[in-house]
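Researcher: Please predict.
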Amino acid sequence: MQKPTLTLSKKQIALFHQEGYLVVPVVITLEELERLREIFNHLFASKAGREDGNQYDLAGTDKDDQEAVLPQIVNPSKYAPELETADIRDNMHAIARQLLGPEATSQSDHAIMKPPEVGAVTPWHQDEAYWAPDLEYNSISIWVPLQEVTLENGCMHFIPGSHKLEVAAHRPIGQDSRIHGLEAEQVDASQAVACPVTAGGATIHHCRTLHYAGPNHTNHPRLAYINVFATSPKQRVISRDFYWKDSRQTLRDERRRAAGTKPTSDGRQIGS
């Protein structure tokens, strides 16, 4: 099967820089999409990475005896090395170079699932709120759903132009310090744009773009594979106070410390 064309138009590039997000209709063949679904269904079902803190419930308290409502796997390529050579990785890198410049490099990958019927909301947040407060980032996430995404199963929503703002105040979801995921404290979502995507497409967003994904009300899981790309971060003259990171006390972090698991580059662990 012929690879999709991945050259962005000047209009698409300008739109991304203006709005902070972009929808691309085709980034992967349907054949490879099916292969990725099989890989990630197996990784989630086998709890790959859970013991070392790399699979956890982003929106729940992550107890072993509770069903995860928003399971995520950080660095899935560690548990499925075939992802390192998948065509989609090259395709994503090509897009990143067009949006960030030739120096853009891969920072991390992760996968996230919204389980059938109980898949939780991913609240409004900015990815940079998870990262180091003393660094200035120029980063994007390329979010590839492994099936069609709709309002019913949790497509992405973005607030246009919000990437031009500073990082807003965040807190653990539901103000529960046991939960790893973050939510922005105050968001005016009146201008938000929902972005359904057909199978094989993707959304791309800047690390400061406010975004949200709804719950999964269908009887099928909603899977997504995300890669983060960036240019080298720069040291800020004045660091920021990301106090919300210090308030969390999660079971995920306990497992990670017990296993001696190091966080992703600059702590870039996110989810939608």
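Model: The mean pLDDT is 93.
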